[in-house]
Write a structure and sequence with these properties.
Layout lengths: L5 H32 L1 H4 L6 H37 L2 H7 L4 H42 L12 E2 L5 E8 L6 E8 L8 E12 L5 E14 L13 E14 L21 H37 L3 H9 L5 H6 L3 H67 L6 H26 L4 H5 L1 H18 L7 H11 L20 H22 L7 H5 L7 H16 L5 H7 L17 H9 L1 H39 L1
Antiparallel strand pairs: 1-2, 2-3, 3-4, 4-5, 5-6
């Protein structure tokens, strides 16, 4: 029977407080990123506080499902990082409580958050997406002077097409202006060309005032004023300055949401399933119609229009019939007429196929978007649970709390998730990948990582121990590790100075002999190093004896001896003998000349460093022996 324990409540409180804080931080970061994309839609539009409040509210609701996984990842990392850094996690394990039992309460909370995320995406998120898209569409239709693009015709002003070659964002001036004024009648059409101009909204925001400089006005004149003539008269006017007032409601008006009915992001799972069935049924019927029309056009239409078409078809299937000979027997006019008819038919068929392909490709894209959005509701909810099983084990392994390393790791994991998810989405939307593969790519990659991290954390792995990697890199690069010996406040056993003095004296003699026998100041024999290596554990034995003496002398109260102990170098015990432990790896390194040369030079530097270290040990031994002689 499941019982709520005090440990579960304690960890849930730690996680809950952090989750609330990190959620709002993640929400703020995502909102700023989203706001940066649409900042042009807000600046300079004169939007009211009510509209801006609606924009930020629906934007926040829309980004909640994306903020939840990142908040779980960051809060779980910090929670277990703090527990590990303060040794609370060690105390929990020492009490016989496994890591998975420690995760128990947070697993339940993560499952609840995942279910809430799915419910949010299925019921609340679609409405927020529709409202957000409706607001953005309405904002684009407000204040057209800041929305007029360069180099293309803008039709946002009623009964008018406006072309601007260049615009100055600082002054608001437009250059190279061409205006096509269009109404219901052809008689009063007008074309206006101007060197420069400026657009301004009137105070009541119901009209647009267009000021033009250095241009010409071409306008058709109504034919009924001059009598019914075959041609339409026009007038031409050159001007240096001219102002035109056009009807335009520049105030903010909410656009009808009917144009967003095909947006899959604004639909629940049930609506998506219903619409996919409807789209499949509709476009299947269109495809069957295309097939029937093509079938009738290629055979049955020809048969109905020409009674002898069947005879011609049978004749063409005869092996003795040669179409080239039949074509050469015709006159030049007939040849040209046949080629022209054939080209026209082919062009008509190609145009029809292109049109049908455009319709079917649009249908496939629309269906894929609905399928992507349906799967996305599950993958985003599942990512909450996956991110917990990544963040919590990593926090237990790294044992670093705060906002330093956890934030860096969270950002890296989220970047990997975002790249995989965005790549899968784009490839699925374009039809290069199947929808289930594209949207399942990110969970498929991160789920094994979550299992691996959980397994390593449950087995107390040091695979992510930063100190271990630091020491390993220092050894690989040949960097020295410094010795730190400090005086102890409480000493239980005093050092055995007499025994230690004798041991140091013996070690000094051994290091002197070793230096002479192995000629450390000279490079080693290449054949002996790579092909005929003999085991050499002498330095390893000397190092162990020296460390034992240092450990015993560390109990002294004499500051001179403590200072001298820090002068002892930490010996590299095997790096001066051969590159690798195994013989075949040494032979392989010798065969690969560049690698072997690098390793040999590296080994020689370690021999020279060992020679210096042995001399330092001998000198330090002498100093400590003299000090011990003075003490005793």
């Amino acid at each position: 029977m499941f019982r709520i324990k005090k440990l579960d409540i304690f960890i849930a409180k730690q996680f809950g407080l952090l989750f609330i804080g990190t959620f709002f931080i993640c929400q703020f970061v995502l909102m700023m990123q989203f706001l940066w994309r649409y900042v042009d839609e807000l600046i300079g539009k004169g939007l009211s506080m009510e509209v801006l409040a609606q924009f930020f509210w629906y934007m926040g609701l829309m980004l909640v499902p994306q903020a939840l996984p990142l908040a779980i990842l960051l809060s779980s990392l910090i929670t277990f990082g703090n527990l590990g850094e303060s040794s609370e996690l060690t105390a929990i394990k020492s009490a016989g409580i496994s890591l998975m039992q420690t995760f128990r309460s947070l697993i339940i909370i993560s499952i609840i958050i995942s279910l809430a995320s799915f419910h949010f995406q299925n019921d609340i998120g679609p409405k927020a997406n529709i409202k957000m898209a409706q607001l953005l569409l309405s904002m684009k239709q407000k204040s057209p002077e800041v929305e007029i693009p360069e180099g293309i015709f803008y039709d946002g002003i009623p009964n008018c097409n406006l072309f601007v070659q260049e615009k100055d964002m600082k002054t608001g001036k437009l250059y190279g202006i061409m205006i096509y004024r269009m109404t219901g009648s052809y008689d009063d059409q007008a074309i206006i060309l101007a060197d420069s101009g400026m657009l301004q909204s009137t105070a009541e925001k119901k009209h647009i005032l267009i000021t033009l400089w250095s241009g010409e006005w071409f306008e058709n004149m109504p034919s009924q004023q001059l009598g019914n003539s075959a041609s339409v008269p026009y007038r031409r006017e050159s001007f240096s300055t001219k102002q035109i007032v056009m009807d335009y409601d520049g105030d903010f008006n909410m656009t009808d949401a009917a144009s967003l009915s095909n947006d899959a992001r604004g639909k629940s799972l049930r609506q998506i399933g219903h619409d996919i069935d409807s789209l499949n049924h509709m476009y299947d019927s269109i495809g069957r119609r295309f097939y029937a029309d093509s079938k009738m056009g290629t055979f049955y239409v020809a048969r109905a229009s020409k009674p002898d078409s069947l005879t011609a078809l049978k004749r063409a299937q005869d092996k003795s019939f040669s179409i080239d000979a039949e074509f050469d027997s015709l006159s030049t006019d007939k040849k040209q007429r046949i080629i022209s008819m054939a080209l026209n038919k082919v062009q008509m068929q190609v145009s029809e196929l292109d049109f049908n392909s455009m319709i079917t490709s649009d249908a496939d894209k629309l269906i894929r978007q609905h399928q992507i959005e349906a799967i996305n509701k599950f993958t985003l909810a599942l990512s909450c649970l996956i991110f917990f099983f990544i963040g919590a084990p990593l926090g237990a392994i790294i044992r670093k709390g705060g906002l330093g390393i956890p934030v860096i790791i969270s950002v890296l994991v989220f970047i990997i998730f975002y790249i995989l998810d965005n790549t899968g989405y784009r490839m699925s939307r374009g039809g290069m990948w199947t929808v289930w593969f594209g949207k399942g790519l990110a969970p498929a990659v991160l789920t094994p990582l979550a299992i691996f991290f959980t397994y390593k954390a449950n087995n107390d792995s040091v695979v992510f121990n930063l100190d271990m990697y630091k020491n390993l890199m220092m050894k690989m690069l040949g960097l020295r590790l410094k010795r730190h010996v400090f005086g102890k406040e409480v000493i239980i056993d005093d050092p055995d100075y007499v025994s230690d003095k004798e041991k140091l004296n013996r070690i000094s003699q051994e290091v002197t002999d070793y230096s002479k026998v192995h000629n450390l100041h000279k490079p080693a024999n290449i054949i002996n190093v790579f092909f005929r290596y003999q085991p050499d554990h002498e330095i390893e034995r000397i190092s162990q004896e020296l460390e034992a003496v240092i450990e015993d002398l560390a109990n002294t109260k004499d500051k001179v001896i403590l200072s001298e102990l820090n002068n002892y170098p930490i010996l590299s015990e095997k790096a001066h003998t051969r590159p690798f432990e195994r013989k075949w790896m040494n032979i392989a390194a010798a065969i690969i000349v560049p690698i072997g040369a690098f390793l040999y030079i590296r080994m020689w530097t370690f021999r020279l460093r060992l020679l210096h270290d042995l001399r330092t040990i001998k000198q330090t031994n002498t100093n400590i022996e003299n000090r011990i002689q003075h003490i005793i």
